[in-house]
Amino acid sequence: MTRHGRFITLEGIEGAGKSTQVGGMAEYLRLRGMDVITTREPGGTPLAERLRAILLDPANSEMSQTAELLLLFAARADHLERLIRPALAAGCWVICDRFTDATYAYQSGGRGIDQAQIAQLEALVHGDLRPDLTFILDIPPDLGLARARRRRQGETDRFEAETLEFFTTARQVYLQLAQAQPGRYRIIDATVSLEQVQAQIRQSLAELINELEGRA
Ligand code: Z5A
């Protein structure tokens, strides 16, 4: 059977459990015979990781919303060009911890930037490339923030310092995106145990693979 690369993203607010699930997803896909790489945003390439450090640095608390938006898309442009597109072209499955949906959730929902402006940058930076499947790990912000607080070591980053209202609005935007385009998104109940979250994700991955194998 010919294997085609697929682009899978994980989204959700702070502490939803995205980073925790990435490794298990990769392991499952490898067991099913796929070549897999895992990556994250902002970040994923040396340049994008440098931009991530700037974006998260609490010393940059005065950064303007526009500067933040453009830095995110600058990092994404490099990430797409140097890592994501070449991996997909080589037949790899790419699992990315956050992608452009996070920009809609945080920079539009959280910061109030017009979604049309984000859509323009999205069109410029990734053309018609979109994730094949996006998991939204859904959790009430107070529970997500409590988890993140328990895990945190050291200083709070620029986003972690945001208010409960900021994360509540970001969550609402994620749910609206999923409602508008149910084919691409799977909403995962992230309030349950790690194993139960993993089982929900594996079920959807298995369905995607079965669908692809049915088509091959
Ligand atoms: N950002 C943006 O504004 N716009 C954009 O376009 C993009 C990003 C791409 C990246 O920081 C920040 O950039 C992000 C948005 C912004 N900030 N925020 N918020 P990041 O990558 O460091 O932040 P994050 O994605 O929110 O990471 P996180 O706090 O680590 O969340 P997580 O990855 O979803 O959670 P986790 O690390 O997997 O789990 C958190 C803790 O909960 C940990 O101790 C786990 O062991 C525990 N956990 C996980 N799952 C469970 C379950 N099921 N039960 C119990 N405990 C659990």
TrEMBL record:
Span of domain Thymidylate kinase-like: 10-201
Binding site for ATP: G12, I13, E14, G15, A16, G17, K18, S19
Gene3D superfamilies: P-loop containing nucleotide triphosphate hydrolases
SUPFAM superfamilies on file: P-loop containing nucleoside triphosphate hydrolases (SSF52540)
Keyword NAD: no
Keyword Transferase in annotation: yes
UniProt entry keywords in alphabetical sequence: ATP-binding, Kinase, Nucleotide biosynthesis, Nucleotide-binding, Transferase
A Gene Ontology biological process term: dUDP biosynthetic process
GO cellular component terms listed in the entry, alphabetical order: cytosol
GO molecular function ontology, one term from the record: dTMP kinase activity
Reactions that this protein is recorded to catalyse: dTMP + ATP = dTDP + ADP
EC number(s) stated in the UniProt entry for this protein: 2.7.4.9
Enzymatic class: transferase
Protein role: Phosphorylation of dTMP to form dTDP in both de novo and salvage pathways of dTTP synthesis.
Record PANTHER family: THYMIDYLATE KINASE, UMP-CMP KINASE 2, MITOCHONDRIAL
Membership in a protein family: Belongs to the thymidylate kinase family.
Designated name of the protein: Thymidylate kinase
Name of the encoding gene: tmk
